[in-house]
Amino acid sequence: MLNFLSANGKSAIMWLLLIISMIAVLIAGFSFIDEAQEVSSKVTLDIEHYIALELCQKSLVRFEEIDESDTYPYSVWPQLNLGIIYQAMGDFEAASENFKKCLTLSEESGTMFAAAYALYYLTTLAVDNDRFEEAKVYSQHLDTLNSQGSSSNKIRKVSHWPIRVINSFSRITEALVLKTSPRLKDKVRAQEMLQQLVEEEPINFDITYSVILNLCELLLFELRASGETDVFQETKSLVQRLATQAQNQHLFPYVVNTLILQAKLAMVEGDLITAAQFLDQAQLTAKEKSLIRLSKKVSTEIIQLESQYDNWQRLIQSNAPIQARLEQAQLKDYLKNALRLARLEGVTTKTEYE
Question: How many CB atoms lie within 10 A of CB 199?
C-alpha cells in the first residue's frame, strides 16, 4: 500500500511540475504575441519573461532530481520549454543552448519524440536568424530521425501518434529550408510539400498554423510573380480556415492576429470597409480577452489604415496591379511576424506529455 501511495505521489508531483513548466511557456508565449511585430535580436526582458524563466527553471531542477531515480528523462520537456522562453525573449544563443541540451539528453536516453521537438525548434530558430546552412543540418538530422522512427521500439511502444509528429516535423523543416532557397524549383517543391501537409489529417493547431502560414508566404511569392487571382483566393481561403480553427479552439491571440491578416487581405482586394470591420472585430476580441499589447497593435493598424485611406483609394481607383497593393498592405512583413508567433507559442502541450 505504501509503495502504491509513493508511486501515485511521485506521479502527482511530475504532473504538477509539467503543468508549471507549461504555464511558464504560456506566460512567455502570450507576452511575445503582443510584441510579435517588434521582433529583433535585442533581448527584451520584462516581468512576464522573468516569471516564466523562474517557473521553468524550478521545474527543471525538480525533474532532474526525479531523473536520478527514473529511467525516463522527464527534464527534457522543461529544458525544451526554457529554449522556447529564451526564443520569445529574443536571446538566440540561450535558446539554442537549451534546445541543444534537450536534444543531447533525448538522444542519450533514446527519447526520440523529444529529440524531434528539439530539432524542429533548432531549425526554425536558425531560419529566423538567417542561419540557413545551420538550419539545413538540423533538418537533415530530423530526416534521419524520421527514417529511424518507423522501426524504433521506443516510439512504437507509446503510440503511432508520435511517429506522425516526427514525420510532420521532418517534412515541415525540409520545406522551411527549401523555402529559403533563391532557386525557384526549391520554392515550388516547398509549396508542394506544404500543400500536401495541409491536406492531411491535422495533428494539432500549432503545426497546422505553421504549415498554413508558410504556405501563404509562398503563395504570396507566386502572386507577386504571376498576379493570378486564383492564388489570392487560395490564400484567403487558408487564412479563413485558420481563423475558424482558432476561434473554435478559443485561441484568442491567434484569433486577433488572423483577423489582422484578413483585414490586410481585404485591403489588397480593395474592400476597405471589410478591412475596417475585421480590425474592429480584432480590437473587440483583444479588449474582451485583456490582450493589452495586442489591443495596442490593432489600434496601430486602425490608425495606419485611416492615415493611408487616400493612398488606398488612389490604388483602387487606378486599378493598380496586385503587387502594388501587396506592398502597400505590408502583408509579407506581417506574415513573417505571424510565423514567428506560431513557433514561439509553444508546441509542447499536455497531449505531448501524455
Answer: 7
Question: What is the C-alpha to C-alpha distance for residues 346 and 206, in angstroms, rounded to an integer?
Answer: 8
- Find all residues with CB under 8 Å of 226, minimum gap 6, and list them: none
Q: Domain range for residue 28? A: 1-106
- CA 76 – CA 329 distance, rounded (Å): 42
Q: Determine how many CB atoms are found less than 10 A away from the CB of residue 69.
A: 7
Q: What is the pLDDT of residues 38-82, one digit of tens each?
A: 433 334 445 556 676 777 777 777 777 665 656 567 788 888 888
Identify the CA nearest to 354 among candidates 147, 70, 77, 6. Answer: 77
Cβ contacts of 111 within 8 Å, gap of 6 or more: 72, 73, 76, 105, 154
Is residue 315 a part of any domain in this protein?
Answer: no
Q: What is the dihedral of CA 178, 179, 185, 189, to 10 degrees?
A: 70
Domain tally, the chain: 1
Enter the C-alpha cell of residue 196. Answer: 500536401
Note whether residue 41 is domain-resident. Answer: yes
pTM as predicted: 0.77
* E-only strand ranges, 104-252: none
* Whether residue 156 has pLDDT greater than 90: no
| Alpha carbons 52 and 28: distance in angstroms, whole number | 6
Distance in angstroms (rounded) separating the CA atoms of residues 173 and 177: 6
